[in-house]
Amino acid sequence: MAVIKTSIVSLAVFTILLGVVYPLAMTGVSQLIFPSRANGSIIERNGKAVGSALIGQPFSAPNYFWGRPSATTPYPYNAGSSSGSNLGQNNPELHKALADRIATLKAADPENAAPIPVDLITASGSGLDPHISPEAALYQVRRIARHRGLSEAAVASLVDNHKEPQQWGIFGEPVVNVLRLNLALDELGVK
Amino acid sequence: MTENGLLQIGLYFVTLVLLIKPLGSYMADVYDDAPHIFRPALKPVERLLYRIFGVKDDDDMSWKQYTASVLVFTLFGGILLYLQQRFQNHLPLNPQGFPAVSWDSSINTAVSFLTNTNWQGYGGESTMSYLTQMAGLAVHNFLSAATGMAVLAALIRGFTRRSAQTIGNFWVDLTRSTLYILLPLSIVFTLVLVSQGVVQNFKPYKTVPLMQKVTYDKPVVDSQGNPVKDASGKDKTEPAALTEQSLPGGPAASQIAIKQLGTNGGGFFNVNSAHPYENPTPLSNFLEALAILLIPAALCYTFGKMIGDTRQGWAVLITMFVILIPLLIFCYYAETADAPYVKGLGAAISSGGNMEGKEVRIGAANSALWAAVTTAASNGSVNAMHDSFSPLGGLVPMFLIQLGEIIFGGVGSGLYGMIIFVVIAVFVAGLMVGRTPEYLGKKIEAFEMKMAALVILIPAVCVLLGTGAAVVLKDGIAGIANPGPHGFSEILYAFSSCANNNGSAFAGLSVNTPFYNILLAIVMIAGRFGVIVPVLAVAGSLAQKKYVPVGSGTLPTHTPLFIVFLIGIIIIVGALTFLPAISLGPVAEHVIAAK
User: How many structural domains are present in chain B?
Assistant: First the structure.
């Protein structure tokens, strides 16, 4: 049967062409012209990797900016196993998780009367979201200033410096990278 | 909804429309073997491939030979992909030392990628070796897409050939689709994606320190790796602390490029294009979303050019846009309206829309846009978790799938499905006025109508029977993650997605079980080949017919009147088939929540 022979031969040829030559060539070119990005956008401090600009880290200490809640298991921001919560809007489990997160935010900063940014209480799609909205960063300024003994203006200006506008002025939404912001916070010197 | 959100959606469609004619015209030249930009450079490569395959490029096939080639090629591809997963632990490029994939998951995944569904019961970064991803899954991203495009080319020849016994050569159509269309586009797109931060390497996962130590409850496992239960039957845990994070790597960009372009949709990572390494920036998001509709939309122009009447292609395109855009805007509205859950929290929440399961850099507008286009096309990649959409927001992607993946649909498969709907519309119109229906100069007769009925009935029956079986069987119900009507929606979505070869999911449903892996694999095969075989039969039948010149009794199929009529047929068929099921799922959930 000619069709069987042609199927097997063409599969073998296409597997080599599309499955070996193509990805190897693409990797070679990418490593040459975009080495940092092709390797995960690693942030370095003093020659040492401290994280990735694209993968969020978990923060819960009051003297750091907190990122999006993460639904990865068994611990948050597990980059080896990305996951959303997949909770439906009318699932009581989601309502309880939201109420708990609001309670945590309120307890950490009881006098803050600003509306809570929705991205601070909802789990991200990937569980690894490196960003929060600028509003979510500003919401946390008071708490961080108090815990670090800094002026609110100093922390707020740090947030402002880390605000990334929409790409090319139109695409996506304005964001703040939480890991970069917290690295800068530590570099201010006062813990 | 915000002005900027609507502006981004508008920009998306303007860009898409501008690309349709150049790409569509180029693809027509490719299938007609007319001169085009890559022909001088790649024609020798094409000829060399035919020599290796043992194929003569002018050796045309009957529809039965064509069908046999599609089926045998797909069967061997499936066997190869199954073996690649089962033996990945003995093969190179497995730096994380992943074990062999289970037999049922391997079958499901092999079927899923061979049928251009790319339904995923596994998480890529925790299951598949780099070799399995690039030399297995990514290869079939190309070939399943090229197969769909080949079948479309064959159907178009059914209209253009007169009194002919053949509809083209499958190996030639497959090779041309891959070599001239999918591969060049993927090469360019890969580099653009890497420039935005999509990873492309062969390194093992990189360990970086965490700025802040994390404490968590670690599940206890026995020496076999199975979870240990405590006295009350819950998984036992122990307190643990973590100071490092393991960042995944892999040849991701080269696979993501074709996954978007070939309406495959199978993510390199578990959360697909919500993952920052798969879709790092708003620009990458815009381009990945554009890639979803690019080829399916341009193929409509290809169709028009190949039959010598581009008005026919535009009429089909307009039909697609008119159905998609209102549903998309409705989805955007639903995802930015105040969710009922916000009102019940007793705290002031800023209005940023429903952000559960969404990424901040992407936002609600682009999540809704993606959800609509990925399900209009049978892509099925996601940049937000559809399971966490509002009931009405989640209804939109589900309904777009249930329309049969013909609103753009898969590369090739969407348009051949749509052409079948046009044939049905022409037939119904013919019945109304009592004339023999014809389309593009070919009489539509009993045989074509029988095949068209199969094309519509087979996926629909698979969706409804599959869902029905799963909701009454213990193994089916066991997978449900969310209570109430939403749990039913999860199952309905799964069967809709698989039977129509979409591949997206309400991902809370636990589907990596033998029950779902096997049942959904059967449904995917039926949904793919239960359509391809009748379509090729129609192609063969039409090719044999004589050309009927346009007369005073011919129904013009490019007019606004016909477009409205066609939309009516599509909506009525889709709505009548699925309205009862949809009422029990998303509609019931919305009504209950609103109370």
Answer: 2
